[in-house]
Amino acid sequence: MNQPNATFAPRQRIGSYELLVELASGGTATVGIAVYRGAAGFERLVVVKRVHRKLARDREFSAMLLDEARLASSVRHPNVVPVIDVVRTEDEVVLVMEYVEAVSLADLIVGVRASPLGRLPIAVVSRILVDALTGLHEAHEATDLRRQPLGIVHRDMSPENVIVGVDGASRVIDFGIAQARSRLAHTRAGMIKGKGAYMAPEQVDGQPVDRRCDVFSSGAMLWEALTGARLFDGKDDFDAMRLVMSAPIRAPSSLSPECSPEVDSLVAAALARPVADRFQTARAFARALEHAVPPAPPRLVGELVAAIAGPELERRNAKLLDILGEEATRLGLRSRLSISTPSLEPPPRHPSNPAPAFAPAPAPARSIIPTVIAVSLLSVLIGAAAALVWLSR
Q1: Catalytic residue annotation
Q2: Are residues 116 and 46 in the same domain?
Q3: Containing domain of residue 132, as a range?
Q4: 30-68 burial, b if ≥16 CB within 10 A, otherwise e?
Q5: What is this structure's pTM?
Q6: Same domain, 73 and 169
Q7: Could you read off the pLDDT of 213-254 as tens digits, one per residue?
């Protein structure tokens, strides 16, 4: 008997994919980790998005989901997680994406509240948002094979749809409700899609949207990452949408002393309600943020992810190791986050202090061997030059 919702039973197979561990389940799909098994023993870990069967049977929803796959696969950028395959059966649709060892920005914001830091260091926030905005701009600029603009608008930019990896890079995910000029599944008239607290005013008002809608949503996301609080925190989605339309927008420095007047100004520009007053592109937003707050290097971001989310990622890896057994070695799995997890320290008392707000792993000692080699080569060159001078005489 078919289940109404997709479930993850370890070792269950769908096409060339073997399900392993469930990560999350929502109103439309269940997401988890699987292993792809191809010819000649080729194997790799992937993330699969398994749509609930009652929705997969809906023709319009299925068309929308296939749009997601087509749109996401057209964006090739390090800061966007691509869809690499689609599996469609009689009553099921499964999207396959690259596996990234990461947690969502939403989980990171929540996790850091319980740490000595209290909220994310401002340079780390800058790196995360600059990465996400860079990937978003690439999606906005995407074209088809005939070099015609696809007109992609994400329409659901939120902390849940930005993942931050242990490699220190951030990536945009889930173009499931994206709008494009060439969509096969058109949004019904008056139908609002997205999360209320991150919608742009024109989106709430049911007006046509463009890339500047994603700029507003990213501004709300930046405000939350800087302060640790939600900007439009309504009792429900409808209340949040009411706040989006009319609530006063406080400067982030009112909650986070690390924020300079320049940061307050760029956040205000991203969150301008009149569309013409906003940053016109995600790239312009990213450049302004880079200028105001030099981003932390990816290494420090990765160490912070390990410090905050390491235990959760370790539990995930432990489940995979338990299911896969000896196969885990071939897939490159190992318990590595617990080997050198940096310790967190409270943020510095003086915002002008450039010291990092958490203790990174010590840098390895510099080897003397390269220096010895360089000195030896220099001696040989000097000797050769002297010989040439003597012979010329």
Answers
A1: 156
A2: no
A3: 100-186+194-310
A4: bbbbbbbeeeeeeeebbbbbbbbbebbeeeebbebbbbb
A5: 0.82
A6: no
A7: 999 999 999 999 999 999 999 999 899 999 999 999 999 999
